[in-house]
Request: fold
Amino acid sequence: METDCSGPRKEKSRVLQLDEACPDQELLREAGAYVKGGGLAAFPTETVYGLGGNALDPEAAKKIYAAKGRPSDNPLIIHIASAEDIFPLVTEFPESARKLTEKFWPGPLTIILPKSDLVPYETTGGLDTVAVRFPDNRIAQGLIRFSGGYVAAPSANRSGRPSPTCAEHVREDLEDKIGMILDGGPVRIGLESTIVDFSEDIPVILRPGYIGMDMLKEVLGEVRTDPGILKTGKDAPRPKAPGMRYRHYAPRGELTILEGEQEDVRREIRRLVREHAEAGETAGIICCNESREAYPQGEVHCIGSRDDENEIARNLYGILRAFDASGVGRIYSESFFTPGMGQAIMNRLIKAAGGRIIRC
Ligand code: AMP
Ligand code: MG
Reply:
């Protein structure tokens, strides 16, 4: 079956159930052949679900953009299943990149380097650099190997929607647009990979993720953060990763983040939610387990314990989607500046809020 994502597609995606501990090799071989031949298949990684197509086929890249409704100047990450497979994709491989990939691959790390002629401009959104990642998931690795080694995969959501952290989320967004969904259960991390750009002298973080600044510094020494991802608002500098420029990860309701002392934040959220209730509207609340009791009104979703940042990261996108299902118009969230992944969590939350923050 050939998938054509350029036009409306009526059939539903075929869903293949796979066990990450021991994925069925025959199913992976079938899915790999499908992707190699130009089809699109969603698959689990340790970060979020990806929407895979053959990275060396310009037509597959076009289908990915069409299925996601993604602007075609927003480049795709190429996924590989063996570290040395990066060499044909790039024209340089600095010592610093070697050290970092030795430490964190397979894992939630994407690196950017100057691209070789093998990589079509359709895959890199017209850029002369290419983003590459070796994911730590046996279903992903099997699919990539059987597809010929190079799978271009953005997150498997409609553009602008929260990234999918389970196969059901992929189905919600893309069921009638792609041929296959490989269902390997919920993901482990729940936030997209850390992106480090090696195309300049000093490595630069273009997107924060599970691998934080301290972990990167330990290996690289000097690392910078793209100023475009630290600030929001009109005067903020433009992020270097094209994808970080768009409103992203967003629920349909209007999300606002509240920052400040715990007690002040809780009081202000209670006040806002009460105001909505008086106007006959139910507002949504995102809070940590520890403050659940502070909110007697509203649709409350607990994101996890303040002491468990892995849980907070894993639950974030699922909660944003849950508000879409219930249809609340306004959502208020506490802030989660946790020690390791806080920057990544707050980066996604602030983007989902379109930069709307109330400082209490
Ligand atoms: P996603 O595919 O949804 O995980 O998003 C991939 C992210 O990587 C987007 O923010 C892209 O803009 C970014 N990206 C991919 N390739 C490059 C590149 N060559 N230079 C800068 N950013 C890139
Ligand atoms: Mg994405």
